[in-house]
Design a protein that fits this description.
Structural class: alpha+beta
Number of strands: 16
Helix content: 25-40%
Radius of gyration: 24 Å
Distance between the termini: 40 Å
Length: about 375
């Protein structure tokens, strides 16, 4: 259990903190006692805090400060933003919008309402490559600046001792050993722990990103190049916010852009005649074709095939429907009983036969294509 492991870390943390002050030791002890309780981290854009009554709990937006005194969460005040500001999306309740909670976005421009008495909206984009047609329009209450100055209002008891600990590498090492769930639980334990995470948790959250993304497809790995891309896309965002933004993005439903922007490997199933690399190939989906009026699949040995997306089902020509699902690697699978398509690392449009073979081995789920990991 993650919280049982976290208790051990808290005990080690108390030993490191003993010389730094009694207040910090008390804060850590309180965190250890509360961790095994009802606190749990949900990857749905909210951290559920322990309730004050039997069977009750209250949600708090990811990355936000502690709820105000009195228990009820106050509605966020409308904020003004400038072009390029990084914000966190929050408070969306619609079934088709829940996956956006916790996502990082960049403000592009305001949209003035026709009625001066109405609240305006803001256009934000989720990715730097998103065209203007893909921008979202959200009200100010659904956005929160990513660059929060402090996690809590005013100094808290023991803040001086925590400040002295900020330069102690053992404290950072202890936090770095915690998983994301334990770090979230730490934040939920109280103001002292929230400040502890705020002051010294950056390296721990980066490590959590490396662990989580490192277990996924290679295009999600936290390389130096990927780190620079994230810094350019969301300047000033914390590693904790980047972690939760990726978790929210992993719940995004499949859309037309996934077809055209990702690389796809293809093979027949064994029952339909698939023979590993002998029948596998790299295929390409083209955006809406003027001649066909829909997306088009290009693959070797076939004429261009029309494709139509209906939620989690892809219809290709007159073949049996193809079911879409997301894999543990965060890649996509489109399959029926005869064929299977897998998304993978970004590849050049034109590939030689040798390059195709090497590229198919780069797909993290190539075994689903009937390709052995140790070679042809």
């Amino acid at each position: 259990m993650p919280f049982q492991r976290a208790r051990g870390w808290w005990q080690a943390l108390q030993l490191w903190c003993h010389q730094a002050g009694h207040d910090v030791a008390l804060a850590v002890s309180a965190a250890a006692k509360r961790l095994p309780g009802a606190t749990r981290m949900l990857c749905d854009g909210a951290v559920w805090l322990p309730g004050h009554g039997r069977g009750r709990s209250r949600p708090a937006a990811l990355g936000g400060g502690p709820p105000p005194a009195g228990g009820a969460a106050a509605a966020p005040a409308p904020a003004l933003y400038s072009h390029g500001d990084v914000v966190v999306i929050q408070g969306l309740l619609g079934a088709a919008e829940l996956h956006l909670n916790g996502r990082l976005a960049q403000v592009m421009r305001p949209v003035r309402p026709a009625d001066p008495h109405e609240t305006g909206t803001w256009c934000v984009r989720l990715e730097p490559c998103d065209p203007e047609g893909a921008w979202l329009r959200l009200r100010p209450a659904r956005l929160r600046a990513a660059l929060a100055a402090t996690p809590a209002h005013g100094p808290c008891q023991g803040a001086d001792a925590i400040g002295r600990l900020a330069h102690m590498s053992p404290m950072r090492d202890v936090l770095r050993g915690l998983g994301a769930e334990a770090l979230c639980a730490l934040r939920a334990c109280g103001r002292r722990c929230l400040r502890l995470d705020h002051e010294m948790g950056s390296a721990a959250w980066r490590t959590a990103c490396e662990r989580q993304w490192g277990s996924k497809s290679s295009r999600f790995h936290l390389t130096d190049e990927r780190s620079a891309e994230l810094a350019r896309a969301f300047p000033g965002a914390s590693w904790r916010q980047l972690y939760h933004s990726h978790m929210s993005a992993a719940r995004e439903p499949f859309g037309p852009r996934h077809l055209t922007e990702l690389s796809w490997g293809f093979n027949f199933t064994r029952e339909a005649g698939g023979v590993g690399l002998m029948t596998a190939q790299i295929v390409r989906f083209e955006d809406k074709s003027e001649s066909m009026g829909c997306s088009v699949l290009h693959m070797r040995g076939f004429q261009p095939l029309p494709c139509r997306l209906h939620g989690s089902v892809l219809q290709i020509a007159n073949f049996a429907p193809h079911i879409i699902r997301r894999l543990p690697s965060w890649e996509w699978q489109i399959a029926n009983s005869n064929v299977i398509f897998l998304s993978g690392p970004l590849l050049p449009v034109e590939l030689s036969v040798d390059d195709t073979i090497r590229s198919l081995h780069l797909f993290p789920d190539s075994c689903l294509l009937g390709i052995p990991e140790d070679g042809p």
